[in-house]
Amino acid sequence: MTQTGARAGADTVKRAAVLGAGTIGASWTAWFLARGISVTVWDPRPEAEAYVRRYVAEAWPAMSRIGMIDGASPDAWQFVATAEAAVEGADFVQENAPERLPIKRELYARIDGVLGADAILASSTSGLIMTEMQAGFRSAARMAVGHPFNPPHLIPLVEVVGGKETAPETIAWCLEFYRAIGKKPIHIRKEAPGHLGNRLQAALWREAVSAVVTGLASVEDVDTAISAGPGLRWAAMGPHMTFHLGGGEGGMAHMMEQFRPVFETWWASMTTPELTDDTIRQIVEGVAAEAKGRSIAELAAERDRILLPLLELTQGKPR
Ligand SMILES: NC(=O)c1ccc[n+]([C@@H]2O[C@H](COP(=O)([O-])OP(=O)(O)OC[C@H]3O[C@@H](n4cnc5c(N)ncnc54)[C@H](O)[C@@H]3O)[C@@H](O)[C@H]2O)c1
Q1: pTM, 2 dp
Q2: Residue among 124, 133, 158, 183 to mutate when testing ligand 1 (max atoms within 8 A of CB)
Q3: In the predicted model, what is the mean pLDDT of residues 259-282?
Q4: How far does residue 93's CA lie from ligand 1's centre (Å)?
Q5: Distance (Å, rounded) from C-alpha 13 to C-alpha 195?
Q6: What residue owns the CA closest to ligand 1's atom 2?
């Protein structure tokens, strides 16, 4: 890495660039603004400017409610005409272009020469491999994955993953940066499809789909099996720690001793469902029945009514 002396400290970033301002880019913009970082936004869709404005206005009360706005302004951003202009002079770039390797690489090719010699670029990619994204670029050592969960202005987790050419300092800087702005970053130590959080979700959802297809339970009952059961505990602590408590006074060691054969039998009985047209229809119809006529907006409002107090309870204030 060159000229590290000039890099903004991870806790003193003043200006970020957001490239690609759809669902994820607009949400990141809202969060950076809330944390007092000014933002230059670029998206090839001219309508994206109005979308970001609406998104920030709608996100602001929720971020305020969870205590994340320290006198920051929702107006400290501008929409610029090119990716190059967005990146110029930015300490940090969050890239949220469509999930296609050629699109991301074409974008990196455009900004590679403009990106400040010490600026860091993090990609929101859900599944692409950083080693393939960064190959051949001057700034490769300063590129990493910074994968959020939707919506990034509410969900704290960010997965930081390096590619083969990512410098260890870049990983350390990203972890420190996301921590400083109030996120909960974790370091994923190897490149894997879906990083970690989505692999965990996929493992559970595989069994959830399987349960419906094999007639174990309805879509609605499968959802209740999580939201009224283990899901409540998982917001407080993860699956390992939850089972540590499941072992009583003996903790995880006792839990392992008691349940090792049981879990091995359960795992052995699990199968991977095929997402056939029939399976998809069954799940889509099941979700429609569970929604009982509520629109997506109504369901999202219902989720947020629970999510916001939960975030207040579980997340400390940053800085
Ligand atoms: N949606 C999610 O739940 C989610 C969660 C975490 C990460 N991500 C990741 O975030 C990234 C963006 O996903 P999204 O859901 O916001 O998609 P989206 O379709 O909502 O937004 C993509 C935006 O990129 C713009 N765009 C098109 N071509 C572009 C280019 N060449 N350069 C820059 N921008 C371009 C589009 O106009 C659009 O506004 C993807 O890499 C995705 O994997 C998505």
Answers
A1: 0.94
A2: 124
A3: 96
A4: 14
A5: 26
A6: 150
